[in-house]
Amino acid sequence: MKGEEVLVKYQDGESFGVHDAARDVLEACGVHGAPLLKVVRQKCLDCSAGQISEVRKCTCWNTCPLWPYRMGKNPFSNHKGNASALTAEKSDCVGG
Q1: CA 38 to CA 32: how far, in whole Å?
Q2: Are 75 and 68 in contact (CB under 8 A)?
Q3: How far apart are CA 64 and CA 44, in angstroms?
Q4: Measured between alpha carbons, how far is 43 from 50 in angstroms, rounded to an integer?
Q5: Contact present, 1 and 9 (Cβ < 8 Å)
Q6: What is the rounded CA–CA span in Å between residue 37 and residue 93?
Q7: CB 30 within 8 A of CB 21
Q8: Are 55 and 77 in contact (CB under 8 A)?
Q9: Buried b (16+ CB within 10 A) or exposed e, 35-52
Q10: What is the pTM of this model?
């Protein structure tokens, strides 16, 4: 399990890593699930010493695969909010 943080090492030498752990085991170790974009944002903050302004100014666009997501948003998403609310607003404007 090269490159993976080991949670448990068994007596026979086998390792038990994060990808092998059940959800309850991870939560007991203090690892909790979070929305992916928030996790990326936290990694970017960690990389820039907790400086929010440095995340915005980051120039690692050619070396970091997380760069497009650093602001906590997916720039490739066509999702622009609550579609049903937008449809309701349009019908009010048209008089429908």
Answers
A1: 12
A2: yes
A3: 10
A4: 9
A5: no
A6: 34
A7: no
A8: no
A9: eeeeebbeebbebbeeee
A10: 0.53
Per the CB < 8 A criterion, the answer to whether 36 and 50 are in contact is no
Cα(11)–Cα(66) distance, integer angstroms: 38
Closest CA to 26 of 7, 41, 10, 50: 7
CA dihedral for 22, 37, 35, 40, sign (positive or negative) = positive
For tokens 């943080």, the residue is 5
Q: Give tens-digit pLDDT for 24-62.
A: 777 787 777 788 899 899 999 999 999 999 999 999 999
- C-alpha 69/C-alpha 42 separation (Å) is 11
